[in-house]
Amino acid sequence: MTDLDRTREATPVPKDWTYAPAPESRDIVRLEDRYGHYVGGEWLEPTETYETISPATEEPLAQVGQATAREVDLAVRSARDAFENGWSEISPSARAKYLFRIARIIQERTREFAVLESLNGGKPIKESRDVDLPLSAAHFFYYAGWADKLEYAFPNQRPKPVGVAGQIIPWNFPLLMLAWKVAPALAAGNTVVLKPAETTPLTALLFCDVVRQAELPPGVVNIVTGDGRVGAEIVKADGVDKIAFTGSTEVGKAIQSELAGSGKRLTLELGGKAANIIFDDAALDQAIEGIVNGIYFNQGHVCCAGSRLLVQESIYEPVVDKLKRRLSTLRVGDPLDKNTDVGAINSRQQLEKIQELVATGQDEGAEIYQPPCRLPEQGYWFVPTVFTNVAQSHRIAQEEIFGPVLSVLTFRTPEEAVEKANNTPFGLSAGIWTEKGSRILWMAERMRAGVVWANTFNRFDPTSPFGGYKESGFGREGGRHGLEPYLTFDGEGRHDA
Ligand code: NDP
User: Among 50, 168, 235, which is best to mutate for testing ligand 1, by the most ligand atoms less than 8 A from CB?
Assistant: First the structure.
């Protein structure tokens, strides 16, 4: 018997090739029992609180403040005071210095933030660690660079800050959405009052500690927590000059009508129903990875998710076969496990919404496929799902499901693909998969979508503007364009947007 034979005998071939658990430790996160609001650089003891949980286990994590009208008012006053008495006057290079500090501290505390994001929001740790956190830091670095170059970004227009920005963010990318909003606002010389989503307040509250560590002057960043009522208070607050909102189209519309005629500025980043279009000359395996990333990344809780797949008819069967095979390899489970691909649904309410829309898909005649998958008993979970045989009129082809659910449709010609892709009330993003550069350009020109990805999907970069058409909202975040909503220009009054 050779040495190799002896080794083989001593190491039996495993019968099961599934991954062993690889959980990230929670020890790095130190949770308080109770959190207040961060106002004027200090913690304000909340009048009312609610419990925030982990959606993967339903385990209570902490008590968090539910801000009252008075607490929102204190936050707005503190932001106004900081704006008028210092922040808008300090040198732009000093503002840049604070933003660089914040960026570096986020980088240093990445693991802590990533674990907390996955714990409170349910997203897989490999996504919070490799996407949310690096991009959040990158946004602060990027806008730090612009802070002392506004005169060059907008030559001959004498850019000035707008004042106090009220910022309302959703639960799908809690820290990243905070970074998208806070970094350009501060770089342009504004102060902010921000409300994180009710279900995911914890990374925004940890961010207050970053602000403290960076020695940002008190009142420049104020964070109040609670449900939608707190958002509504911020929207109507007299001392707020601009509202930046990311969330559902329904709430976006309500905010828009509330603000009509008020003179307050508004940017809305709302829902989407993106088409991922795959032509018969595309590199299929690469496209399948892009489709999977497009819809199952972050459990499909992504406004620009590729939730409709448009497949050229001639390759329909191989695409659907490969997709189903790939789906069966996705690992659904503990968000803190480094091998997890699909984590927990963010809340019971969101789970019910997904279940309801999936049931309508079946009722309307679409064919459902879900790979065999054992879900944890506690918490909120949904199996990655594909619908085939989908008609354009089905609700699952028109409405934002915001879950791990893909609707597959077919097309024959590029013209038909364009028509179907544009046939929704939304216009946030789209994806095109083809080997032909000329076809990419032809298609991109005709897409009513703010972002068009070619042979990739869900790629983000702070230098690139992001935003929608139609019911996906207006205004751009990211890039030089992302500064504009936070600035007034020569000849403009403070309130005329
Ligand atoms: P919402 O639009 O309700 O939430 C977004 C933010 O707005 C949250 O901070 C929310 O607070 C706040 N808010 C709620 N009501 C008001 C109001 N009247 N005035 C001001 N602020 C308010 O989204 P949901 O969380 O209810 O999700 C519902 C659906 O919206 C999802 O299923 C999905 O389709 C879509 N959505 C889209 C997002 C996107 O990125 N485009 C992000 C999130 C959701 P609170 O958390 O307490 O409700």
Answer: 168
Q: Is 208 a catalytic residue?
A: no
Min mean pLDDT across 52-56, 215-219, 340-344, 370-374 is at 370-374
pLDDT tens for 426-470 read 999 999 999 999 999 999 999 999 999 999 999 999 999 999 999
**390: which 2 tokens?**
């989908």
Atom of ligand 1 nearest to the CA of 195: 9
Contact 390, 397 (CB under 8 A): yes
Ligand 1 geometric centre to CA of 199 (Å): 10
Task: Decide: 221 and 208 in contact? Cβ < 8 Å.
Answer: yes
Closest ligand 1 atom, residue 302 Cα = 40
Q: Compute how many other C-beta atoms are within 10 angstroms of the C-beta atom of residue 89.
A: 10
C-alpha distance across the termini of the chain, in Å? 83
Mutate to test the pocket of ligand 1, among 181, 194, 249, 251 (most ligand atoms within 8 A of CB): 251
Q: Is 145 exposed, middle or buried (0-12, 13-18, 19+ CB in 10 A)?
A: middle
User: Which protein residue has the closest C-alpha to ligand 1 atom 43?
Assistant: 247
Q: Which of 24, 269, 399, 400 is catalytic?
A: 269
Looking at the DSSP bridge assignments, the partners of residue 430 are: 275, 452
Residue type, 48: E
Q: Is 280 in the pocket of ligand 1 (CB under 6 A)?
A: no
Residue 496 CB coordination number (10 Å): 9
Query: Residue 91: CB partners within 8 Å, gap ≥ 6?
Result: 148
HEC sequence for 133-177: HHHHHHHHHHHHHHHCCHHHHCCCCCCEECCEEEEECCCCCHHHH
Letter for the amino acid at 385? T
**Active-site residue, 269 included:** yes
The C-alpha atoms of residue 312 and residue 456 are separated, in whole angstroms, by 17
pTM summary value: 0.95
Q: What span, in angstroms and rounded, lies between the C-alpha atoms of 207 and 217?
A: 15
The answer to whether the CB of 133 falls within 8 A of the CB of 173 is: no
pLDDT in tens, 252-270: 999 999 999 999 999 999 9
Measured in angstroms, how far is the CA atom of residue 329 from the centroid of ligand 1?
A: 32
Q: Could you identify the atom of ligand 1 that is nearest to the CA of residue 428?
A: 41
Ligand 1 pocket, 227 CB below 6 A? yes
